TrEMBL record:
The keyword Oxidoreductase does not apply. It holds the Pfam family PfkB. It comes from the Bacteria. Residues 17-284 form the Carbohydrate kinase PfkB domain. InterPro entries: Carboh/pur_kinase_PfkB_CS, PfkB_dom, Ribokinase-like. Keywords: Kinase, Transferase. This is Carbohydrate kinase family protein. It comes from Holdemania filiformis. Gene3D superfamilies: 3.40.1190.20. The keyword Transport does not apply. GO terms for molecular function: kinase activity.
Amino acid sequence: MENPVLMLGGLCLDRYCLLSQFPVKGQDTLIQDTFERIGGCPINAAFTLKKFGLDPVLYSAVGAESIEKVQAFFHRNELPADGLFVIEDQKTGFCMILLDDQKERTFMTYRGCEGIFDPARIPALNYRACCLTGLYLIYGTDSENAVAYLHTFGADQELFFDPGPLCDQIDPDLLEKAMRLCTHLKVNEEEQRLLEQTLGRPLTAYFQYRMRAVVVTCGSRGAQLIQPEQTQSFPALPIKLADSNGAGDAFFAGYAASVLQGKPLAECMRIASACGALTAMTLGPHAEGGLKEILQLLQDA
């Protein structure tokens, strides 16, 4: 591999239920369709990283009951499976995704064996960077071991951190350690509020450590790039929304890939927006098309 990027966040199964409407509490509703996808934030991001010529290495434990379909998925999509390992007596976690006719999503997450961390199982490669998602930090001792590993990852390597919607479930001390290690932080507005509440200080306080930039996504209002010297706003691209699941992961990966290519951060933001938009135009978290389609979206905007 020429450009390996370590993906820490765990692999899970996305189980979709398409609804015409949500039921009133205690009542019933019809499911219009249901399907399952191999998912999890790192694998969603991996599809975008590949479009930029990077080699995402997903590190994750997988339950024995789902390893065959996971390996088949990796083979079919030409993803390296070196970082996968099987846990015989445990299940792979899953995310139940309820999607209504307004494209509003509700998540319910079941934690499985994907949080098990053993640094000896990480493929020994010359990683260019690490992408870390917050879900990986809610597994107790395993999460503590993962952050300890990141302390040895390399002072000159980028650490992209996406805390995610469960960021307030992370142990505050562990979250503090991760924040001090990361070089680029990506959050939405609600996650920003939760993080600052949990940490007890503004995210800009972490510029005194390794942090170079804070990226805040604002839905249809676009995104903000916060740096020590300035804050810039970037509009969202006009698209026809199909499903926003995975769009934030694609944005995160597009931003990370552009940073690793040495592009100015303002350009990284525009490319990231196009990556998120392309995914939001697709039902499911993995967008069709490649770098050509991403650049075409930018050109048409």
